[in-house]
Amino acid sequence: MTERASPPAVADRLHSAAIHLLRALRREDRATGVGPAKLSALSVLVFGGPRSIGALARAEQVRLPTMSRLVAALERDGLAARTPDPADGRASRVHPTARGRSVLHRGRARRVEALTRRLAQLPEADRALLSRAADLIEGLT
Amino acid sequence: MTERASPPAVADRLHSAAIHLLRALRREDRATGVGPAKLSALSVLVFGGPRSIGALARAEQVRLPTMSRLVAALERDGLAARTPDPADGRASRVHPTARGRSVLHRGRARRVEALTRRLAQLPEADRALLSRAADLIEGLT
DNA sequence: TGGAGTTAGTTAGCATTGCTAACTAAATTG
DNA sequence: CAATTTAGTTAGCAATGCTAACTAACTCCA
Predict the structure, then answer these.
(1) Is A64 within 8 Å of chain B by CB?
(2) Is B30 on the interface with A (CB under 8 A)?
(3) Which nucleotides in chain C have some atom under 7 angstroms from a protein Cβ?
(4) Quick check: B18 and A22 CB within 8 A?
(5) How many Å from the N-terminal Cα to the C-terminal Cα in chain A?
(6) Is A140 on the interface with B (CB under 8 A)?
(7) A7, A67, B42, B106 - which has most CB atoms within 10 Å?
(8) In DSSP terms, which residues pair with A94 in a beta bridge?
């Protein structure tokens, strides 16, 4: 067996852990009735501010047609709206609606709650470790 | 701002980190031509040993029909096989084929390559921290 | 021991979310 | 101004979730 802390071993186990974590959280996400991809895009709009569909696609690391469809769905659901870009007739700016903000915040609270319950049972030191790990993981990409 | 190591704060950042990590790794997974759900199930079979479809569904936190279809696909691809459970006529045991093992190991190598390069640049202590974090995350669910 | 209920798995059908290919329309560039 | 690039859309496919409804086998108990 490869050493547990060797780069490939850590990469693989992190990958597994991330998959299982998100699967567990997906249940909570489902309660919003919005779907993870739309919720994530909405989150970028709410916390990162309005932007074009292309910029949103880059932020979410998906292709333009995928984001085009997600934005259309968000718009249909009344969670986001498009306004034409004054400087570029091809582009539009997407921004969250009031309802979009509200749904996101409620969903986020629900989602975080489930994980929070489990995290709260960990010793403080473990929680600090996970906090540090979250930063390291974000820094990797 | 809530304290960084408070349960809700860690929950939220961990969730974000997991999403972004998986997005980055998804590209690598695609190169195997197998798909993440099948790859993950196959990984359980290879590293955790043969088991029933139901047990596999529980391990992967998906519903029985979803796993039933994944196993059927793995079988069609020649990556896993079913044998009847001698003790229970309803159940079957799923096990990886030689080819399944080989594909998994090659896929694993490919998948971790990109991440491994980055992990390799971290100080040993950070890598150990992430290794520990992976275990903690798995233990949460 | 035989019928009721439970459990394992399948099938069918739907929704979401990825992708590429092919298109339109607007902007840029030589 | 023609050629190219860029933003976005549409269409169509594949993977992967789900629930509902079904079959077959097992278990339990009167």
Answers:
(1) no
(2) no
(3) 7-13, 16-22, 25-28
(4) yes
(5) 27
(6) yes
(7) B42
(8) A51, A82
Whether the beta carbon of A76 falls within 7 A of nucleic chain C: the reply is no
Chain B hits for A5, Cβ within 8 Å = 124, 127-128, 131
> What is the C-alpha to C-alpha distance for residues A107 and A88, in angstroms, rounded to an integer?
34
**C-alpha distance from residue A91 to each of A38, A54, A87 (Å):** 20, 9, 9
Burial class (CB in 10 A: 0-12, 13-18, 19+), B127: buried
Distance CA B112, CA B109 (A): 5
Gap from A35 CA to C15 C1', Å: 10
Task: Name the DSSP class of A48.
Answer: H
Q: In what order do the strands lie in the sheet with B92-96?
A: B51-52, B92-96, B80-84
Q: In sequence order, which ranges of chain A are alpha helices (DSSP H)?
A: 7-30, 36-48, 53-60, 64-76, 98-120, 124-140
Structure-token match 């069609």, residue found: B76
**Total residue length of chain B:** 141
Q: Are A87 and A37 in contact (CB under 8 A)?
A: no
Q: Convert the pLDDT of each residue in A14-55 to its tens digit.
A: 888 888 888 888 777 777 889 889 999 999 999 999 999 999
Reported in sequence order, the residue ranges of chain B that DSSP labels E, i.e. its strands, are 51-52, 80-84, 92-96
As averages over each run of 10 residues, the pLDDT of chain B (141 residues) reads 73 82 77 87 94 96 97 97 94 97 84 79 92 90 68
pTM: 0.86
Average pLDDT, chain A: 89
